[in-house]
Amino acid sequence: MTTADDPRFQNSAHRIRNALADLLKAKPLMAITVSELAHAASVSRATFYAHYNNVGDVYEELVAEVMTDVRTFEERFGCDPGCKGKGKPLYCDRIRSEERFAGVVHEARFFPSMMALTWEDAEANADAAAKGMDHAAMRALRLFQMSGCHAVATSEFAERGDWERIRRVIDAFIDGGMRAVRKMRG
User: Fold this and answer.
1) Widest CA span of the chain, in angstroms?
2) CB 141 within 8 A of CB 77
3) pTM of the model
4) Digit-coded pLDDT (tens) for 57-78
5) Which residues contact 117 (CB under 8 A, 6 or more apart)?
6) Positive or negative CA dihedral for 147, 152, 154, 158?
């Protein structure tokens, strides 16, 4: 009997995730079946179900993988203007430049799934309170900033040759907003 620690078991899950990422480059999530995904991953349906309940569960793991090392809103909020976040990529840059998971980040379900990863993060909520922000205001700011970044990074602006200039303008706008919010707290 295989266990989650068995490298063969882990390899199967990895192949399933990679197969879904590849399939999403050609078709929407809702059009992908378990049979199609298992076939693309070279695993049986039984092996698929040993790892996941459905295709959506695989997708949620891919979203988490895309966001693994992205600088969080709270890290950006707590950072002084000009802070680069200790080498972590910004959300806009990750979404714009993602190649391996291009189909994942362009799927309609990506933004809500990504937001759900940290929406009720206890550490983020405690951090908001420590900074003098109430929970609802911090959530609203997070949604505002992240949705704006997502919209620009998945639009025609992401394909332009002057992305760095556009990103600097957006960053200046965000930094100005963050400074204004910090002043309000006091």
Assistant:
1) 59
2) yes
3) 0.83
4) 999 999 999 998 888 776 766 6
5) 63, 64, 67
6) negative
